[in-house]
User: Fold this.
Amino acid sequence: MGKWPKLDKIEMIDGPLDDETYERRLEKLQNRLLDLQIHHLRTGGRTMIGVDGWDAAGKGGLVQRIVFGLEPRSMHVWRIGAPTPLEQGRHFLWRFWERVPAPANWALFDRTWYGRVLVERIEGFCSKAEWQRAYREINEFERTLTDAGVRFIKLLVHVSEEEQKRRMIKRLENPHKRYKIGPEDFRNISKREKYLEAYDDMLEKTDTEHAPWHVIATDDKRHARLRGLEIIVDEIGRDVTLTEQELDPKVVEDAFRLWGWKPKDTK
Assistant:
């Protein structure tokens, strides 16, 4: 759609956000998200949320705030890594078709089906013809599912080079966070320019009306988390009117029979 600036040209500075304001806004957004989830439980709606972006850009913290307080049995979080031997023998989208949520369910992907045009492209895990063809295949995948009623929210979290370095060093210095860093992280960091080009191509070729991209600057983690939740709430809540669920008359009857309970507006 041609609307994206180069990623490293995105404004990364936000104003200060005190603890009380942050927690108040966070709780309000999380409660709204729960209301929307309950609405989908009642109506059979389904959503796929994809979170992609740089190492140390705050994906894990954002995912944690998204799922906090949601009904867990209908919220599925998929942490996407390298394909298993079984998955390697199939089309790259096969493992994502396997994870498409059933009606009344949501699925959140921590890294996504865009690995074909990002890490697989840059590391040579697929041919040039394969990753170039993948843009069309991905658009068709998303189009097919949106036509079937699935709503897509795609978030790309972007961190500046200096902030990424600071966070990586902090992980190295904290024994409880060293599990988050490995040799592949340094391999990826050393290829930042190639990744910038791949991200720019991805945004240009797969930002569609039915499955648009949302880029979030994450140098300030608090603003980034709130922005991510705002986008999800707005996208899922588009064209939705939330109404209070009516009591099932049979439930009221059973409650009266067992406990003598009646709704307050009933004499």
